[in-house]
Automatic annotation (TrEMBL):
Alphabetized InterPro entries for the sequence: Cro/C1-type_HTH (IPR001387), Lambda_DNA-bd_dom_sf (IPR010982)
CDD domains: HTH_XRE
Organism: Steroidobacter gossypii
Origin: domain of life: Bacteria
Occurrences of domain HTH cro/C1-type (ranges): 11-64
Pfam families tied to this protein: HTH_26 (PF13443)
Protein name, as recorded: Helix-turn-helix transcriptional regulator
Protein backbone atom coordinates (compact mmCIF):
# COMPACT_ATOMS: atom_id res chain seq x y z
CA UNK A 1 0.00 0.00 0.00
CA UNK A 2 1.47 3.39 -1.00
CA UNK A 3 1.79 6.18 1.54
CA UNK A 4 -1.20 8.20 0.28
CA UNK A 5 -3.52 5.19 0.34
CA UNK A 6 -2.32 4.21 3.81
CA UNK A 7 -2.87 7.78 5.05
CA UNK A 8 -6.42 7.84 3.68
CA UNK A 9 -7.18 4.38 5.12
CA UNK A 10 -6.08 5.72 8.49
CA UNK A 11 -8.28 8.79 7.98
CA UNK A 12 -11.29 6.62 7.18
CA UNK A 13 -10.63 4.62 10.33
CA UNK A 14 -10.55 7.82 12.35
CA UNK A 15 -13.81 8.98 10.78
CA UNK A 16 -15.47 5.69 11.72
CA UNK A 17 -14.09 5.91 15.26
CA UNK A 18 -15.62 9.38 15.60
CA UNK A 19 -18.93 8.26 14.09
CA UNK A 20 -18.48 10.70 11.20
CA UNK A 21 -20.38 9.50 8.12
CA UNK A 22 -19.60 10.62 4.58
CA UNK A 23 -22.96 12.40 4.58
CA UNK A 24 -22.12 14.45 7.69
CA UNK A 25 -18.62 15.11 6.45
CA UNK A 26 -20.05 16.32 3.15
CA UNK A 27 -22.24 18.85 4.96
CA UNK A 28 -19.18 20.13 6.82
CA UNK A 29 -17.18 20.46 3.60
CA UNK A 30 -20.05 21.77 1.51
CA UNK A 31 -19.97 18.68 -0.72
CA UNK A 32 -22.38 15.90 -1.57
CA UNK A 33 -21.95 12.46 -0.08
CA UNK A 34 -21.02 11.07 -3.50
CA UNK A 35 -18.35 13.75 -3.91
CA UNK A 36 -16.81 12.81 -0.57
CA UNK A 37 -16.76 9.14 -1.58
CA UNK A 38 -15.07 10.11 -4.84
CA UNK A 39 -12.39 12.06 -2.96
CA UNK A 40 -11.42 8.90 -1.12
CA UNK A 41 -11.68 6.55 -4.08
CA UNK A 42 -9.70 8.87 -6.40
CA UNK A 43 -7.29 9.88 -3.61
CA UNK A 44 -7.73 13.45 -4.81
CA UNK A 45 -7.29 15.36 -1.55
CA UNK A 46 -5.57 18.73 -1.51
CA UNK A 47 -3.70 19.62 1.66
CA UNK A 48 -6.28 22.30 2.49
CA UNK A 49 -9.15 19.82 2.15
CA UNK A 50 -7.28 17.20 4.15
CA UNK A 51 -6.82 19.77 6.92
CA UNK A 52 -10.57 20.53 6.86
CA UNK A 53 -11.47 16.85 7.11
CA UNK A 54 -9.10 16.37 10.03
CA UNK A 55 -10.48 19.49 11.74
CA UNK A 56 -14.00 18.04 11.44
CA UNK A 57 -12.99 15.27 13.85
CA UNK A 58 -10.83 17.46 16.11
CA UNK A 59 -7.44 16.30 14.91
CA UNK A 60 -4.61 17.77 12.85
CA UNK A 61 -2.84 16.46 9.77
CA UNK A 62 0.19 15.90 12.01
CA UNK A 63 -1.95 13.68 14.26
CA UNK A 64 -3.08 11.74 11.20
CA UNK A 65 0.45 11.24 9.91
CA UNK A 66 1.61 10.06 13.33
CA UNK A 67 -1.22 7.53 13.54
CA UNK A 68 -0.61 6.33 9.98
CA UNK A 69 3.06 5.73 10.74
CA UNK A 70 2.22 3.18 13.43
CA UNK A 71 0.96 -0.39 12.99
CA UNK A 72 -2.79 -1.01 12.76
CA UNK A 73 -2.72 -3.97 15.08
CA UNK A 74 -2.95 -3.27 18.77
CA UNK A 75 0.66 -3.84 19.75
CA UNK A 76 0.79 -4.02 23.52
CA UNK A 77 3.86 -2.60 25.22
CA UNK A 78 5.62 -4.77 27.76
CA UNK A 79 7.57 -3.56 30.78
CA UNK A 80 10.36 -5.42 32.47
CA UNK A 81 9.56 -7.37 35.62
CA UNK A 82 11.60 -4.88 37.66
CA UNK A 83 9.64 -1.95 36.17
CA UNK A 84 6.37 -3.65 37.11
CA UNK A 85 7.67 -4.22 40.64
CA UNK A 86 8.56 -0.54 40.92
CA UNK A 87 5.08 0.57 39.85
CA UNK A 88 3.34 -1.99 42.05
CA UNK A 89 5.27 -0.76 45.08
CA UNK A 90 3.48 2.61 45.21
CA UNK A 91 -0.10 3.46 44.23
CA UNK A 92 0.82 7.13 43.68
CA UNK A 93 3.64 6.12 41.35
CA UNK A 94 1.36 3.89 39.28
CA UNK A 95 -1.33 6.59 39.15
CA UNK A 96 1.20 9.19 37.96
CA UNK A 97 2.52 6.81 35.31
CA UNK A 98 -1.03 6.20 34.09
CA UNK A 99 -1.78 9.92 33.79
CA UNK A 100 1.46 10.63 31.94
CA UNK A 101 0.76 7.75 29.56
CA UNK A 102 -2.59 9.36 28.79
CA UNK A 103 -1.03 12.66 27.79
CA UNK A 104 -1.30 14.64 31.04
CA UNK A 105 1.40 17.19 31.69
CA UNK A 106 3.38 17.07 34.94
CA UNK A 107 1.44 20.09 36.19
CA UNK A 108 -1.93 18.53 35.33
CA UNK A 109 -0.99 15.23 36.97
CA UNK A 110 0.22 17.10 40.05
CA UNK A 111 -3.16 18.82 40.39
CA UNK A 112 -5.12 15.65 39.65
CA UNK A 113 -3.30 13.65 42.33
CA UNK A 114 -3.14 16.50 44.83
CA UNK A 115 0.63 16.22 45.23
CA UNK A 116 3.03 18.90 46.38
CA UNK A 117 6.06 19.80 44.28
CA UNK A 118 8.51 17.86 46.45
CA UNK A 119 6.51 14.65 46.30
CA UNK A 120 6.09 15.02 42.54
CA UNK A 121 9.85 15.45 42.07
CA UNK A 122 10.42 12.27 44.05
CA UNK A 123 7.94 10.27 41.97
CA UNK A 124 9.33 11.60 38.69
CA UNK A 125 12.84 10.67 39.82
CA UNK A 126 11.70 7.12 40.53
CA UNK A 127 10.10 6.84 37.08
CA UNK A 128 13.29 8.15 35.48
CA UNK A 129 15.41 5.69 37.48
CA UNK A 130 13.11 2.88 36.31
CA UNK A 131 13.76 4.03 32.72
CA UNK A 132 10.04 4.60 32.18
CA UNK A 133 10.35 8.31 31.35
CA UNK A 134 12.79 11.16 30.83
CA UNK A 135 12.07 14.69 32.05
CA UNK A 136 13.69 17.76 30.51
CA UNK A 137 14.53 21.09 32.18
CA UNK A 138 11.03 22.44 31.46
CA UNK A 139 9.42 19.39 33.11
CA UNK A 140 8.26 18.01 29.78
CA UNK A 141 7.98 14.23 29.89
CA UNK A 142 9.31 11.87 27.23
CA UNK A 143 7.81 8.42 27.65
CA UNK A 144 9.63 5.14 27.14
CA UNK A 145 6.34 3.24 27.14
CA UNK A 146 2.96 3.58 25.47
CA UNK A 147 -0.59 2.34 25.80
CA UNK A 148 -1.82 -0.33 25.93
CA UNK A 149 0.48 -1.92 28.51
CA UNK A 150 0.55 -5.73 28.53
CA UNK A 151 0.90 -6.46 32.24
CA UNK A 152 2.26 -9.90 33.09
CA UNK A 153 -0.65 -12.26 33.86
CA UNK A 154 1.05 -13.37 37.07
CA UNK A 155 3.07 -10.18 37.53
CA UNK A 156 3.15 -7.81 40.52
CA UNK A 157 0.83 -5.15 39.07
CA UNK A 158 -1.97 -7.53 38.19
CA UNK A 159 -1.59 -9.49 41.43
CA UNK A 160 -1.83 -6.35 43.51
CA UNK A 161 -4.46 -4.33 41.67
CA UNK A 162 -6.42 -6.41 39.16
CA UNK A 163 -8.78 -8.13 41.61
CA UNK A 164 -9.64 -4.78 43.20
CA UNK A 165 -10.05 -3.11 39.80
CA UNK A 166 -12.41 -5.83 38.58
CA UNK A 167 -14.55 -5.63 41.71
CA UNK A 168 -14.75 -1.82 41.69
CA UNK A 169 -15.37 -1.61 37.95
CA UNK A 170 -18.31 -4.00 38.00
CA UNK A 171 -19.89 -2.55 41.16
CA UNK A 172 -21.62 0.32 39.38
CA UNK A 173 -25.19 0.18 38.03
CA UNK A 174 -24.06 1.02 34.45
CA UNK A 175 -27.10 3.26 33.93
CA UNK A 176 -25.33 6.52 33.09
CA UNK A 177 -25.39 8.20 29.69
CA UNK A 178 -21.82 7.07 28.95
CA UNK A 179 -22.13 3.62 30.50
CA UNK A 180 -23.17 0.24 29.24
CA UNK A 181 -23.02 -3.34 30.47
CA UNK A 182 -24.07 -6.11 28.14
CA UNK A 183 -23.68 -9.79 29.01
CA UNK A 184 -24.45 -12.63 26.59
CA UNK A 185 -24.09 -16.37 26.90
CA UNK A 186 -24.68 -18.95 24.17
CA UNK A 187 -23.37 -22.21 22.77
CA UNK A 188 -21.02 -21.44 19.87
CA UNK A 189 -18.98 -23.49 17.45
CA UNK A 190 -15.16 -23.10 17.39
CA UNK A 191 -15.45 -21.18 14.10
CA UNK A 192 -17.91 -18.70 15.63
CA UNK A 193 -15.66 -18.24 18.66
CA UNK A 194 -12.74 -17.38 16.39
CA UNK A 195 -14.86 -14.78 14.60
CA UNK A 196 -15.98 -13.34 17.93
CA UNK A 197 -12.39 -13.06 19.17
CA UNK A 198 -11.41 -11.21 15.99
CA UNK A 199 -14.25 -8.75 16.55
CA UNK A 200 -13.07 -8.20 20.13
CA UNK A 201 -9.56 -7.52 18.80
CA UNK A 202 -11.02 -4.97 16.38
CA UNK A 203 -12.92 -3.21 19.17
CA UNK A 204 -9.71 -3.07 21.20
CA UNK A 205 -7.99 -1.53 18.17
CA UNK A 206 -10.78 1.06 17.85
CA UNK A 207 -10.37 1.90 21.54
CA UNK A 208 -6.64 2.42 21.00
CA UNK A 209 -7.38 4.64 17.97
CA UNK A 210 -9.69 6.85 20.02
CA UNK A 211 -7.13 7.08 22.82
CA UNK A 212 -4.51 8.18 20.29
CA UNK A 213 -6.90 10.72 18.77
CA UNK A 214 -7.68 12.23 22.16
CA UNK A 215 -4.13 12.22 23.52
CA UNK A 216 -3.65 15.93 22.82
CA UNK A 217 -7.22 16.99 23.62
CA UNK A 218 -7.60 19.47 26.51
CA UNK A 219 -7.87 17.77 29.89
CA UNK A 220 -11.18 19.54 30.56
CA UNK A 221 -12.69 17.77 27.54
CA UNK A 222 -11.73 14.26 28.66
CA UNK A 223 -12.69 11.81 31.36
CA UNK A 224 -11.13 8.50 32.35
CA UNK A 225 -12.96 5.65 30.63
CA UNK A 226 -12.40 1.92 31.09
CA UNK A 227 -13.37 -0.85 28.68
CA UNK A 228 -13.49 -4.46 29.88
CA UNK A 229 -13.38 -7.12 27.16
CA UNK A 230 -13.65 -10.77 28.11
CA UNK A 231 -14.59 -14.05 26.50
CA UNK A 232 -14.09 -17.61 27.77
CA UNK A 233 -15.83 -20.99 27.97
CA UNK A 234 -18.12 -20.67 30.96
CA UNK A 235 -21.24 -22.21 32.50
CA UNK A 236 -23.23 -20.26 35.08
CA UNK A 237 -23.04 -22.07 38.41
CA UNK A 238 -26.84 -22.03 38.64
CA UNK A 239 -27.00 -24.34 35.61
CA UNK A 240 -23.86 -26.45 36.03
CA UNK A 241 -25.58 -28.81 38.48
CA UNK A 242 -28.32 -29.53 35.94
CA UNK A 243 -25.73 -30.30 33.27
CA UNK A 244 -24.06 -32.77 35.62
CA UNK A 245 -27.37 -34.54 36.21
CA UNK A 246 -28.11 -34.68 32.47
CA UNK A 247 -24.69 -36.16 31.76
CA UNK A 248 -25.28 -38.82 34.44
Amino acid sequence: MNETKHLLETLKRCLRARGMTYQRLGRTLGLSESSVKRLFSDESFTLVRLERVCAAIDMSVADLVRMASGPREVQSFSLSLEQERTLASDASLLALFYLLLNGRSVEAAERRLGLNARTMRGLLTRLVEAQLIDVDAKRRVHLHARLPIAWRPDGPVRKLYERQVRAEFLQGPFTGSNETLSFHSAELSPASVRILLKKIDKLAADFADLAALDMQAPTRDKSSVALLLACRPWVFSMFSAYRAKAAA
